[in-house]
Amino acid sequence: MAQSTPRREDCKECILRVLDEAGGSMKSKDLEDAVKAKGYSYMTLRRAKDELKNDDVIKYHNAGFGKEKEWHVVRNKPLEAARIPQVLPLPRQEHENGQISL
After folding, report:
1. Which of 11, 12, 42, 47 has fewest C-beta within 10 Å?
2. Is residue 90 part of a domain?
3. Cα separations (Å) of 14 from 11, 73, 94?
């Protein structure tokens, strides 16, 4: 996968800030309007949301039916948690002289 651009990374931070200010969840359209008002293009916003969704940082759900149906964006976990890979601890060995090595 291609490296995310600095502008897209800024947009991702903006999306999460806006979501945090709204309590962690808001209508998708309201989120898009708020982020676009901060100067981000539609494509940058879309790509940033796609990356956040793929990293499981945000998720979408809908509420209502028919004309009343609305999509919402929900913050799923902190961005830092998505960036930190899971690392398994190394096995430790204790030697006869009391030293421990990995």
Report:
1. 42
2. no
3. 5, 14, 48
Q: Give the whole-angstrom CA distance, residue 82 versus residue 15.
A: 15
Range of 59's domain? 6-80
27 in any annotated domain = yes
Alpha-helical runs (H) found in 22-61 = 28-37, 42-54
* Residues in CB range of 13: below 8 A, 6 or more apart: 79
Q: Please check whether residue 46 lies inside any domain of the structure.
A: yes
Residue 84 pLDDT level (bands cut at 50, 70, 90) = very low
Q: Are strands 70-75 and 58-63 parallel, antiparallel or unpaired?
A: antiparallel
In a domain? residue 59: yes
CATH code for the domain in which residue 29 is found: 1.10.10.10
User: Tell me, what amino acid is at 71?
Assistant: W
Rounded Cα gap, residues 50 and 45, in angstroms: 9
Q: Which pTM was predicted?
A: 0.70
